[in-house]
Sequence to fold (224 residues):
Amino acid sequence: MKERPILFSAPMVRAILEGRKTVTRRPVKGLKTDNPVTTGADETPMTCCWDYGGPVMRCPYGKPGDRLWVRETWTRAGNGDPGYLTYRATYPDCLPPGLENIPTAHKIRWKPSIHMFRADSRILLEITDVRLERLQDISDEQAQAEGIIPVPKTTEDSHQFWRNYHLSGDGTFCVGTPKESFKSLWCHVAGGSFPKGEAAYKASPHSWDANPWVWVVEFKQVTP
Fold:
């Protein structure tokens, strides 16, 4: 068993803590064919490495049984004690009455998740399955396992809608299916890494329209 770090945004950290997120999809890097071999000689699915007509490609996140410790946005301040460990994902945006002496979230100097040390991580995940899929092959069920948020129904019999992350992270806009919601989340997260704008994102090999191969890593939360 090996342990490796993995980065998650604050909304996805909350989804993990609430038990809504049990899988993550990450772009495959270095795949030089459209048709990698995804089953072994005995026709059983491969679970951590794939053959693509060249060197064997291994999942960088590990294999079933390996563990991932979560890196998230954090700091060592928040209640007046410089040694106090605080996490952005669960720090209140609006402080309740009686806590006026605690700094608000926007006044705290948060540290990027990439700078978190193993000892400061509070979430440990155990990998239960690894597979290779095309991004657009995700099902509605798997989209929900990615941690997307349903929009509250207006009436008991009204249609269930889902958050549109690309247009509004607070749920002001919505879409009709879990898969559409995940698509908006993928575009929102992946597109945010392209400061030159939407055109640069759409031209990238990791865009939704490019339908890249992705690592599908399923996990369960375990005690750190």
